[in-house]
């Protein structure tokens, strides 16, 4: 029986999936349907679309409503913390309450986020502004008893401190997605009850693969963060793809200028690569692919109540 996968981080409203890259000009036709068909062909049965602002959260929710088995998050990304104002939390709370899954008839919101801290990109928003926006979202997650979808970049100690200061002993559940930290950092997050999401950016180096190997299976999730975070030939994880079973492989990628409806676009990640991420993790852990696929699927359904 074909394995099933859930991509927990997918930026499906990005213009790349409409054929628009760094310029306003459309390079190739809108191929969202082709992308989703390829994902289903390799066993990706569901995905969570990421919201990084209130307007984006509404956009991804609307798209998730159109797609069978798709869900969304709602929150404010740390690099957009300058958008935080006095009305934001009230507006976010109202949107989540009106569109929460499974509490509303058509609701697809399963987590609050993407929220957190990012000390690598302070040119977008300074530390105090990020901490304030994150703190208020943490309190809202507590109030609504909704899982967190967390972002952490070069800020581990401050992230943990902010979570503990805002939430006390009543820590919300959640997942730290696109994890790139150390084994010690991973272990602390796991000890706090969080899951760890891995994608291509999480698997670039041998140290990253050591972290992947160390993550307890009952805390693991898989993602692509497409159209970003693809696995490239320079990554330590790349050789593991040689043993990916054929039934989970996508066709060879082509340059966007030579677009084909039947092939991925080079340098544009897509949800159909989710099995490849699971396979790299399984290879690093020296366990069968079905072990990683099954636990990641189960963990995702359990945390987000799918």
Structure commentary:
The chain has an 8-stranded parallel beta sheet. It has helices spanning 32-41, 54-66, 88-99, 127-144, 156-167, 183-191, 206-214, 274-285, 289-304, and strands spanning 5-10, 44-49, 70-74, 109-118, 148-153, 174-176, 195-198, 220-222. The protein has one domain: TIM Barrel. The radius of gyration is 18 Å and the shape is globular. The protein is built from 9 helices and 8 strands. The two termini are 21 Å apart. By secondary structure, it is α/β, with parallel strands linked by helices.
**Structural class designation:** alpha/beta
> What is the arithmetic mean of pLDDT?
97
Fill in the CATH topology: TIM Barrel
Order of helices and strands: EHEHEHEHEHEHEHEHH
**Radius of gyration of CA atoms, rounded to a whole number:** 18 Å
Query: Which superfamily, in CATH terms, is the homologous superfamily?
Result: Metal-dependent hydrolases
Strand order in the largest sheet: 1-2-3-4-5-6-7-8
**Distance between the ends:** 21 Å
Low-confidence stretches: none
Fraction in helix: 25-40%
Q: Per the principal axes of the C-alpha atoms, what is the gross shape?
A: globular
How would you sum up the major sheet? Answer: 8 strands, parallel
How much strand content do the residues show? Answer: 5-15%
Tally of DSSP helical segments: 9
Strand runs, count: 8
Protein name: Mg-dependent DNase
GO molecular function, one term: 3'-5'-DNA exonuclease activity
Organism: Wallemia mellicola
Pfam family, one: TatD_DNase
How would you summarize this macromolecular structure in one to three sentences?
With 306 residues, the chain is α/β, with parallel strands linked by helices. 36% of the residues lie in helices and 14% in strands.
